[in-house]
Amino acid sequence: MDLNTPIISKIIDNWIDEDIGRGDLTSPSITEENGNAYWIAKEGGIFCGVEIIKEIFKKIDLKISSKFNISDGDQFVKDQKLLEIYGPSKSLLASERIGLNIAMHLSGISTYTKNLVNKLEGTNIKLADTRKTTPGLRIFEKYAFKCGGGVNHRMGLYDSAMIKENHIAWTDNLNNAVKKIRLNSPFTTHIIIEAENIEQAKEAVLAGADSVLLDELSPETIKKNVQELRDLSMNSLKKEVNKNLIIEVSGINPEEISKYLIKGIDLISTSSSITKSNWIDLSMRYIKKSYR
């Protein structure tokens, strides 16, 4: 993950300011010395946050050194020692809560995502995320989703166009909606149309959508109609199937994802990795005496 951007640097600065503020009022109670500490997993999962944690350490105190025994996307087990750190005792304690909080949150997302991705094994279907993210944390949460084996959907409203239910309510028809987006956007713009029924999905394909998102449709309905949607993408002039058409499924209960492993589907998108995942429990253990 590239942290060398002003925006990400400012976000991490805000985390530190939120917790430390004008200074740690408890720090005068401890001795001024260097010490060792380590992070340990209190349950298993998929780790996420190595470079982010390193950046937190660096911003709090350049004298903190760290050795990670794990990489982003790696699986870990209960009682596994994840990283070792050395530095001024006050700085180690100042970094503890900020670093653990973001690592536990992101590792929870990665772990939840990996469990869903495993259910797609043996298919050509990819798991995609959504824009349902915590304000201010989108780039980190979407990174955690990737560490769990998923793929990122659009990052925001600026990198692809999606005509959703509420957009359709304010358009005269999908053909004109697509034409207006093409006219006012770069030629590389990807257009997605959300469909709540098969007739709307057919209309979306004929309107020239690059992707059709089948929202809250039953697996039986999708199985019955997915090939027809691909047939409708045929170019009437060249008589060739548009192999670039992406068919996406969303709005399903993640516990029922195995029912949607249907040939012809490219993506299953879900917000559950971020909205339903639990933090993974990690802890820092401090060793007062220095061994360096």
UniProtKB/TrEMBL annotation:
Catalysed conversion reaction: nicotinate beta-D-ribonucleotide + CO2 + diphosphate = quinolinate + 5-phospho-alpha-D-ribose 1-diphosphate + 2 H(+)
Organism: Prochlorococcus marinus str. GP2
Classification lineage: Bacteria, Bacillati, Cyanobacteriota, Cyanophyceae, Synechococcales
GO biological process: NAD+ biosynthetic process; quinolinate catabolic process
Keyword Transferase: yes
Enzyme class label: transferase
CDD domains in the record: QPRTase
Its biological purpose: Involved in the catabolism of quinolinic acid (QA).
Protein name in the entry: Probable nicotinate-nucleotide pyrophosphorylase [carboxylating]
GO molecular function, one term: nicotinate-nucleotide diphosphorylase (carboxylating) activity
